[in-house]
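P.,

For your records, the input lines for the assembly:
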Amino acid sequence: MSNPADVVHAQHVAHEAHHEELGFWRKYVFSTDHKVIGIQYSITGLLFLLFGFSLMMLMRWQLAYPGVPLPLIGGLFGDARMPGGTMLPEFYNELGAMHGTIMVFLGVVPLAVGGFGNFVLPLQIGAPDMAFPKINMLSYWSLFLGGMTMLGSFFVPGGAAQSGWTSYAPLSVIAGTGQTWWLIGMIFLITSSLLGALNFLTTTIQLRAKGLTFMRFPFFVWAQFVTSFLLLLAFPPLEAAGVMQLMDRVAGTSFFMPSGLIVSGQVLANAGGGNAVLWQHLFWFLAHPEVYVLILPAMGIVAEIIANNTRKPLWGYRAMVYSLVFLGFMSFIVWAHHMFMTGMGTAMAAFFQTTTMIISIPSVVILTSLLLSLWGGSIRFNTPMLFATAFLPMFGIGGLTGLPLGLNISDIPLHDTYYVIAHFHYVVAPGTIFALMAGIYYWYPKATGRKMNETLGKIHFAGSLVFMNVVFMPMFIVGLAGVSRRLFDAGSGYDFAQPTMHWNVVSSWGAWLMGVFQIPFIFNFFWSIRNGEKVGDNPWEATTIEWAAPSPPPHGNFAVAPQAYRGPYEYSVPGAAKDFTPQHEAS
Amino acid sequence: MRAQGSRLCLVAVLIAVLGSPGVAVAAATITGTVTFAGKAPALKPLAMDADPACAKMHKGPVPAEMLVLGSGNTMANIMVWVSKGLPAGKTYPAPKTPVTLDQKGCQYVPHVMGIQVGQAYRILNSDGILHNIHTLPKINPAFNRGQPATVKEMTTTFAKPEAIFQVKCDVHPWMSAYIGVFTNPFYSVTGSDGKYTISGLDAGTYEITAWHERLGTQTATVTVGASDTKTQAFTFGVK
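C-alpha cells returned:
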C-alpha cells in the first residue's frame, strides 16, 4: 500500500462504498472526475475547432473572390464588417487573428492535452483520477472563461483582435479594444494550461500503477508527460509578456513601445524606451515549444493506434522515448528561427539555424520508427488506423518543408508568404488534427461503450485526406511566388500575384468541400452515442491499461487497482495464446 | 375650397407673427473673401508614383492641395466658423443630408469640410481601388477602415464637437483632408474664389475664426443686426 496510486485507489474505493449520487451540476458541469473533465475539454475543443474552421471558410471566400459580396450570409455581418456582403480588410484581419488563436489555444491544445490527456492518461497509468481533481476542474473553467472572453471580443467596439495570432508589438499595443480582450483571454488560457500541466506531471509520477515503470509507459503517456513540461516551462514567459502588453495598452507603460514611434504621421506620446522585438522573443519562446505541444500528443495517439492495428510492438520504442525527451529539451532553444527577419546577427542566426537542424533529428527518428512499425504488420485498416497512417506522410510533408524555413538564407524570401502557411498547416492540420480524429475514433468506445460507425468514419477520412491536400498544397505554389500571407485580397492589387490567383480558388473550394466532409463525422459522433455498435471493455484487443477498465469507466475507473507486469506493446508474442498480452494481466 | 382657405389663413398668421415687432428672425449673414498676401510659395506636386494605379489617373503633375489659390490670390480650403457669441442653450438639429467625402483620383474631395454632430458622414470610393480612411481626432473615436475597390460607400457619424482634425489614407500617404465637427450650422469653407458665407444668424456680436491647415487661424469680431449682411475679409500670409 506504499504506492501512492494504491493509496488513492483505496480512498476512492472507500469513498465509492458510501457516497451519495452526485447531482447534475456536480456530475456533469462542475465535475472533478477526470473523464468528465476530459469530455468537457474535448467537446469545448471540438466546438472551437468548428468555429475557428468557420472563420477560415469566410476568409477563403475573400481570398478566392476578393471584393465579391458573399452570397446569402454576407449581409448578416453588418456594414461595419461586410457592407453589402463585401469583406472589409479589418474584418479579414479579425478573422485571421482569431482563426489562429482559436485553432491553437482553444481548439487543438484543449482537445489534444486537456481532452485526451485528461481522459486517457489516468486510465493508461492505472490511476483512479488525477492527482488534484479540484485543480483539474479549475483548469477547465479557466479555459472556459478564456474562450468566452475571446468570443466576447467579437462584440466589442471595433471587433476582436486584428494583430495576428502572434500579436506583434507595437501594432498590437495601438490596436483597438479587441486586443485588450485577447490579452485577458490569453491570461485565462495560459493559467488553464499551467494548472493542467502541474496536474499531469504529478499524476504521472505519483499515481502510476504498481509495476508501471517509466519505460513501461505507453508512448502516449510519455508524449503527454513531455508536453506538460513544455507547457509548464514555456507558458510563464508569455503570461508575463501578456501582462506587460496589457500594461502598455491600459497603464501607459512602454515595455514594447520604442521611443519616437510615429503612427499615421504622428509621434505617439506614450511610446518610449521599449523594445518591440522583446515581444517577439517572449512570444516565440512559448510559441515554438507550443508547436511541440500541438504535435507530441498527436504522435502519442498515432503510436498507440499503430501498435494496436499492426498487432506489433512499436519499432524502436526506447529510441522514440529518448527522441521525445531530447525534442522537448531542444524545443526551448530554437525559437528565434521565427525571427530571422528582425535583423539578427550572423552569430545568433548560426546558433538558431544549427539548433533547428538538430531538432529535426529526433522528429525524424520518431516518424521513421512509426513508419517502420508498419513493416510486416497484420494491419487492420479501421478508421482510427486510416487517420493514423495518413498522419505519417502529412506530418512528413509539414516537417520537411519546415527545413528551408529554419535556414536564414532561405527563410528570408519565404518569410510571411503562403509557403509558411502551407508548412505549418501540414504539421497541425493533416498532421495533428488527423491524429486527434484517429484518437476520437479509437477511444470513443472507452468513453461511451459504443463504436462510431465505420462507413461514416471512412467517408469522413477519405474526404478529409483529399481535400486537406487540395487546401494546402496550392499554398506552396502561391508562397513560392512570393505572395504575402497578410494580404486581405490575396494580392489581387499586385501584378506579381496575378498568376497565382486561380490557386486561391482551388484552395477555397478544397476548404469548403473539406467542411462538407466533416458533416459525416459530426453526425456519427452524436448518432453513435445511442446507436453505435455496443462493445466490451477491450474492443480493439489492445494491451494498455485503459482497456482493463469498463467501457465507460465508472467513478474511480478500476474495481481493483491494476498492476503493470510488462511493457505496453506486447502484441503477437511468440507462443502466446492470443495476439495481444495486456500490461495488466499477470502471466 | 376649404383646404385652400386654410392655407391662406396659415400664410396670413405667419406674416402677422413674423412681421410683428419683438419677434427676432435669424436672417443675418456674414460673408467675405479670404486672400493670400505676398508671393505664393512654389509647392511640389503630389507624388503618386508609389501606386501606379493612382498615377495613371492623372495626365500631368497633380498640384499640392496645401495651398490652393484662385485669381487675385483668393484662397480655397479655408474653414470659417462662428467661434463665440451664439445664444447659450440653443440647439441646432443635425441636417438629414449627409456630408460627402469622395476618393477620386487618389485625392479626397473636398479637401476641407465641416459637419454637425450626428450628421451622416458619407465616404465614397469613386476610384475603384483600395483606400483607407483614417480620421485622427482627439475627442471622437478614430475611424480607421479600409475601403476596398468594390465597397463604394461607407457611412459614419461623429458624436462630439471637435476642432478641425486630419483625415488620411494609410495606403496613399499624400491623401489628406480636414474636417471640423460643430454643434451648429454656422461654418463655411471657401472655394477657389475665396468666398465664404455664414447665414441664418440671430442679431448679435460674434467672433468668427478662419483656419488654414498650415497658416493657422485668425479671428475677427462682427456685429450684425436682425437681417444684416456684414462683410469680413481675412488675409493669410507666410510669416
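Two observations worth noting. The first helix of chain B runs from residue 2 to 19. The interface with chain A takes residues 53, 129-130, 132, 134, 136, 141, 144-151, 153-155, 166, 168, 170, 173 of chain B (CB under 8 Å).

Regards
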